[in-house]
Amino acid sequence: MLTYPTQSSLTEEIIHNYKMNKTLDTAEICHLLSHKPKEEDQLLFTASRDVTTANVGEMVHLRAIIEFSNVCEADCLYCGIRKSNDNVERFTLPTEQIVQTAVEAMKQYPGVLLQSGEVQSQAFVNRLAEVVKQIKQLALTNSPLKENFRVILSVGELSQNQYKQLREAGADRYLLRIETTNERLFKNIHDRQSSMNERMTCLQNIKDLNMHVGTGVLIGIPGQNLFDLANDVKFFKKIGADMIGMGPLLPAKGTPIGDNYNAQQVLKDIHSENLFDTVKRMISVTRLMNPKANISATTAMEVLNPESGRVEAIQVGSNVVMPVMTPIGDKKKYYLYEGKSNVKSGLDVLKAQITQAGRKYDLTKPGDPVSWVERQK
Ligand code: SF4
């Protein structure tokens, strides 16, 4: 008599094969991402936690985020600070305030992420390069890490020469989310001439400059399925991403997607149950496929599950958290999605969450991605 593997044994078999071959094919990734009984998910989560410990260790790294401007020339359909969202009050911090906030950050944290909307003018890049230079200079006397204090940028798509200028000014890392590797979905959530291929070219340009390359995706895009997510995970591996950030798509008022957000439909589209669990599985599978990358526990996870969003992300494979140090008056104006500005991310809160997740923190080391460190050998 023919017997077929049960769901349980299929999950076990996939994890077993992964341990032998250190890779997963598309069908295996789809199965691991799919809705399963809790005990099967647990097999996946245990495997990804073990892979995290073995490859990047037990430390969770912290970097402060300074959101220095919510002015954006783009009009992404999901994003609360898209240029046509008139509900948002725009701000841009003066150079001195960005630098001063970074100096405060460097007394506690080993790196700072400067984030803004996308502005492609040369004047914007010149000013940002000046900010980066000043921060790196001041780190020599104000940060215990001195020249190892890291500056990370996330300001969107720029030209190769502009990335080069920022690298030469001292930027160490660059985050540019691909958002989705399905070209149709990419077009559905972006307004303009920008294409997925152009964004991929930007990522390659960043890599060619030997910056730490960060990317990531949105989970819960209307029409997205597990096959799309499996391709996203394979893309991270293909480009050798050093840093990966993934979060659920959360609605923002004043955006086409946010104003039509039907949470139930989005959940059905993805996998017929809780979006939070799908993101957790994505973190797990991404860790299996990218053992040496840094993977962040995003603020959006905490919004989706205020009880334990970050903790659970860390438990299944995330090893980076990012406290927000945007000046309090402007924090609410950096309105990417509903609920973001309410998330607590002070150092004490994060230390407690890391400990609760059974991990450790070390504020004395830059926490460079192991994947990047190994590329330098
Ligand atoms: S996602 Fe980025 S580029 Fe798009 S509108 Fe928002 S800030 Fe601008």
TrEMBL record:
Keywords (A to Z) from UniProt: 4Fe-4S, Iron, Iron-sulfur, Metal-binding, S-adenosyl-L-methionine
Cofactor remark from the record: Binds 1 [4Fe-4S] cluster. The cluster is coordinated with 3 cysteines and an exchangeable S-adenosyl-L-methionine.
Position of the signal peptide: none
Acyltransferase in keyword set: no
Cofactor: [2Fe-2S] cluster; [4Fe-4S] cluster
Molecular function, one GO term: metal ion binding
GO biological process, alphabetically ordered: sulfur compound biosynthetic process; water-soluble vitamin biosynthetic process
Record-listed [4Fe-4S] cluster binding positions: C72, C76, C79
Entry protein name: FeFe-hydrogenase assembly protein HydE
Species of the source: Hexamita inflata
